[in-house]
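Continued from yesterday's entry.
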Amino acid sequence: MLRTLICALAALFAASAVQAQALDGRLKKIADAKAISIAYRADATPFSFTNDKKEPVGFTIDLCKRVVNSIERQINVQGLKINWVPVTVQNRFDTIAKGQADMECGSSTVTLGRMKQVDFSSFTFVETTGLLVKAAAGARSLSDLAGKRIGVIGGTTNERAVNAQLKGRKLTATVVSFKSSEEALAALEAGKVDAFASDKLLLVGAAGKAKDQKSLALLPDELSFEPYGIALPRGDAGFRLAVNTGLSQLYGSGEIGEIFGRWFGPFGPPSPIIQAIYILGTIPE
């Protein structure tokens, strides 16, 4: 009861703080249009993908919907319409930078290089780069892929992680770039590559769409640290504050546990590091 009261008061004070200031930038545009545009990916299961009705769903989609609810309270505009904007790995950040969407809700890793083009919210998840292989091949780690072909999605942090690990371990392997996880998975199934490197849960999501799921295996390697965030326009501190306020309210409530369980329940409870980002993301007023 006390926790619920504290969260309610925090939401009230946050809304009052925003309303006390004249809206400008992206928040004013959203308030005037009574609409917000959210970029989403259709191939980032279980973070952002489309269901049988072609509707955007997933863990990050759920987070962003809660953020929109918070923004409604903060700017005192109810019933904001969400305009869904489909994006790809290649154009997701351009879409935000060019103002074609207000936020990108997928599985985007926060990096210093990307911050030159877009801003990011507080962390929403933490992943690692893993390797998906054919179980029959007998590979047990990256070292077993020496002289082999490793598929990646071009321009991702996973591609950089694989190249860095190969260089650091003095291994020789051919890194093959693909445009999407569907292409990379198809190449793995067809034997055109010997492994597919991506964020581990994205690999699990991709494997779930394979023709023969039991023929694939996820190796234990963790090749990089991938902190996720919601991509936002650069230079709009008010909008970033509104998004982080929404995340803070969500993290401080019990709802984050319910959302996490809905999408990741079979994998067990949040890891200590994921629990830490939600605790640290509950920013004091």
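--- second protein ---
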Amino acid sequence: MSSKRIFYATQGVTLTPVNENNTVSTAVIPGGLQSIGVSTNFNLEKVFQLGQLELYDSVENNQEVEITLNKVFDGTKPLFLITMGGTASATSGDLLSLQNNKVNLDLYIHDETSRGTAGNAISRLQCTGLYASNFSYTFPTDGNATEEVTLLGTNKTWSTNTSGGSVFSSPQTAKGLARRWKFDSRACVFPTGNGGIPTGSPLTNVTVSFDLGREAVYTLGTYEPYMRTVGFPVEISTEITSIGIEGDFLNVNDVIYSCTGGAGGLQNKPIKFVICGSGAGNGVTIDLGDKNKLQSVNYSGGDTGGGNVEISYSFITDNVFHMIAS
């Protein structure tokens, strides 16, 4: 074996969507994948007995494989639709309709001294029946927009059976990396007005994150989970950061209810983000519905060391996350 290390060019990943009826779809090679991390936890349960100080036994209660993938928005299908869509052709979906779909993952390791192709992979990691558990989206002014997903499962097999393909047969070029100028602010819906951000705020960063709280459900007679249920309600967090111009304009009275007809409470706000693709297509829309409510505001920066005041507005809603890939 001439390979002495593993680095980005020697790794290739395929994702195979599986629907709730366990129908396996076509494998997808995700474009723009930046990293993969794999951790394994055996969740040992210790058992002791009366009359003995030493450990009586240590039971492998429920092993868990956790895989983290990070991808740039580049005009190819987002990880949300690949890992939860249930089919390789999925172009849209929300949490409720896609919650029971799974995905299989193959990680191929190639020889570092030759170009990574399916024919010269030296080892292969197979993980089946993975459930998407956690998602995080970042849209910065500096760097690429990224998507990160955490997958949970119980099956993990390393082998030298390297049949199949995990890398592109020829060099690829991004269809349209999502940078700050690809953030289509004209098509977005921002939470402005009372209990929101000031209209026309110069935005510097947007993040959206949520944890599906996948709880393993077990049945008698089986070792693996029967399923991993989504822990509804799922809280969706959105943080929008802007350069401060005049202040955050959130008065304490805006959030105090009054029986005598004073200022009302915080209002529900619609939020929708649109990311342009290449040409007329390959864009992504993330719709968070109409019931996002301001949770906190943070005014910081602008000190004597230089720099501008930045104001971060944190909004929360529940269960509404709809993605459309055009």
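The chain has a mean pLDDT of 90. Helices lie at 79-84, 95-98. Will compare against the first tomorrow.
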